[in-house]
């Protein structure tokens, strides 16, 4: 007979979430997303997080 691990209902589960589907107009999260993506200038931070020399993990291109 197979030796199965005992199942525990207290274990976690991974759930796939599409964050753009979660951002509903009129919510705080939607407003925060709009402010960061469309109204706040983040270019002063680019020098601090520069990895143009091929060192380290590539960055995700900002959506603006």
Please tell me about this protein's structure.
The chain has 64 residues and is mainly alpha-helical. The protein is built from 2 helices and no strands. The longest helix has 12 residues, at 28-39. The mean pLDDT is 78.
Jot down its keywords.
25% helix, mainly alpha, 64 residues
In summary, what is this structure?
It is built from 2 helices and no strands. With 64 residues, it is mostly helical. The chain is flat.
Strand count: 0
Low-confidence stretches: none
H and E string: HH
Structural class: mainly alpha
* Backbone shape: flat
- Biggest sheet, open or closed, and with what strands and sense? none
Number of helical segments? 2
Q: How large is the share of residues in beta strands?
A: under 5%
Instruction: Please give the radius of gyration in angstroms.
Output: 20 Å
Intertermini distance? 58 Å
Helicity, as a percent range:
25-40%
Please, what is the oligomeric state? single chain
Walk me through the topology:
Blueprint (H helix, E strand, L loop, with lengths): L18 H4 L5 H12 L25
